[in-house]
Amino acid sequence: MATVQEKGTISIHTENIFPIIKKFLYSDHEIFLRELVSNAVDATQKLKKLTSMGEFNGELGDLRIEVTFDKDKKTITVSDKGIGMTADEVKKYINQIAFSGATEFIEKFKDKADGKDIIGKFGLGFYSSFMVADKVEIVSRSFKAAEHEAARWECDGSTEFELSITNKQERGTDVILHINKDSEEFLDEWRLKGILEKYCKFLPVEIKFGTTEESVEDGVDSEGKTKYKSVTKDRIINNPSPLWTKSPNDLKDEDYLKFYKELYPFSEEPLFWIHLNVDYPFNLTGILYFPKVKNDFEIQKNKIQLYSRQVFITDEVKDVVPDFLMLLHGVLDSPDIPLNVSRSYLQSDTNVKKISQHITKKVGDKLQDLFKKDRKDFEKKWDDINIFVKYGIISDEKFYDRAKDFTLLKNVDDQYFTFEEYKEKVKANQTDKDKNLVYIYASDKGKQHSFIEGAKNKSYDVLVFDGILDSHFINTLEQKLEKIQIKRVDSDIAEKLIDKDEKIESVLSQEEQDQVKSVFEKAINNKNMNVTVDSMSPNDLPVVITMNEFMRRMKDMAKTGGGQYAFMGSMPDNYNVAVNGNHPIVQKIIKAENEEAKTKLAKQTFDLALLSQNLLTGADLTNFIKRSVELIS
């Protein structure tokens, strides 16, 4: 065993760590403004807390935060009228990297205040200033103005600073950034306005940025018409009391719709929404909206905004929101979601998992409630919301358990059924010889119309599965529902969709069947077309082209990110060509005067089958048209 020679602590020098903090702490340089405004909000909220606890008895006055810039002087200034700092506090909070004043404040007054309105946590946000500034000044006067003079701190981005007494009269703090040459893009009104609106839109203290011109009524003219005049007003960037901070009992539908327009000005109205308001075992508030998605859902992602105490964090919420609910819109706000020091990325832990599970439960409960309260209205919304439900069933075992009672199956006649209802509807006529229930579906009612009619002629019911996720959804249903097989309506001839061990007698001898098969194989001349001669009703089509259910489904799944099925996408299409041996046209082929006439007639019949499924293109289509003209001339 090795002998220990020495023990000690690792030494970290600020000369080494400070450049790292400045350059690499934040992935996006625009974050500096969010951090400084958040600090200003903290300073203001602390003063409010002290007032409510009787620790400060002075006048609060106007607590508005102001952001200004001077293009000529190349400065950006963030000013607040909050708690302020003494010279000693500046040394304590600013000179000690990663010393969080917010953490100390909460600890100091933990018996009097819960600190839920205090944003800061890591004590590093201020240093994001040096990503864009050559020099930073802090001018601050403490709320204890009678006891302490105002302090001025200055640093050029090195580990050296200057601290002096200054002549600031008002309580609060001004942070002045002297913008470096590489960051002069931020000395632009619309650039700064965009950053403030992105990150500070719902901060709990009013934020002023410049002014704006508004037109207001100014009496009437001599003709009795209303006159207007232009007035200059302060431009307030944020809404300090967003809807999710209010009690659901105090809100009406129009409030939720108005807030949705505030979040997504160019979107259609949502279908419905869920207001989250949890304070145990974690804090979570927010509003999630169900938009109209249908099949084009990829472009809808990243529409949920994550906040922490009303500070925008990110719209990348995949660790907090289950993947199938990433299609929702809205906001989530939680101080209990652990973030790294830049607040830009989520770290998965127990709270995150609990929050994710809670959101899943609330969505399931809401859908269940809508289904029970108004089944007809739920059915009207189904075409828009089914993608959420199916995605959830595919990806989340627990959600399937919640959703199985309100998930609907829709048939080609626009009738809706729960799983149990549909089972009862079809079991009498759609049970095969092995006691399996066979569900038949169409993925395109127009293209598969003839197959649908063939199934209906046998009194089969046909479902509609035409969504982008339905190939995966069908697979899941077959795994979940006992003794259920699901087949696309064009995966086989109607007589074979459900094997009931019933056979139609053939009018052809075995020799004639072999002859017909040979003629069609020669006419088709395609190794990916498997020809069979089947006994069908004389009223059925002479040739039916189908693709094996398993093969077609795997190829569909490959198109939508099939994972283990991806290789199927590159495989050639293989089809079954069922020739109806009982159709009169087959008799014509047998009796044709020579091989050339037989082949020509078989080719024409095969091309008709291709045409019915939009599979006849290019030169084959041109030749079919020419041949058709010859046959009817």
How many DSSP H or I helices? 18
Q: Report the CATH C-level class of the largest domain.
A: Alpha Beta
CATH architecture of the largest domain: 2-Layer Sandwich
Number of strands: 21
Order of strands, main sheet, comes to 5-4-3-6-2-1-7-8
CATH topology of the largest domain: Heat Shock Protein 90
Question: How would you describe this structure to a colleague?
Answer:
It is elongated and about 115 Å long. The chain has helices at about 15-25, 30-50, 85-95, 100-110, 190-200, 255-265, 350-375, 375-395, 395-405, 420-425, 450-455, 470-480, 495, 510-525, 550-560, 585-590, 595-610, 620-630, and strands at about 65-70, 75-80, 135-140, 150-155, 160-165, 170-180, 205-220, 225-235, 270-280, 285-290, 305-310, 310-315, 330-335, 410, 415, 435-440, 460-465, 485-490, 530-535, 545, 575-580. It is about 35% helix and about 20% strand. Helix 8 runs antiparallel to helix 9 (about 395-405) and helix 16 (about 585-590) packs antiparallel against helix 17. By secondary structure, it is α+β, with helices and mostly antiparallel strands. The chain has 18 helices and 21 strands. A hairpin with a 5-residue loop joins strand 9 (about 270-280) and strand 10 (about 285-290). The model is unreliable at about 100-105, about 110-125 and about 340-345 (pLDDT under 50). The chain folds into four domains: about 15-210, 2-Layer Sandwich (Heat Shock Protein 90), CATH 3.30.565; about 245-375, 2-Layer Sandwich (Ribosomal Protein S5, domain 2), CATH 3.30.230.80; about 410-500, Rossmann fold, CATH 3.40.50; about 505-633, Heat shock protein 90, C-terminal domain (Four Helix Bundle (Hemerythrin (Met), subunit A), Up-down Bundle). The N and C termini lie far apart (about 105 Å). An eight-stranded mixed β-sheet has the order 5-4-3-6-2-1-7-8, covered by helices on one side.
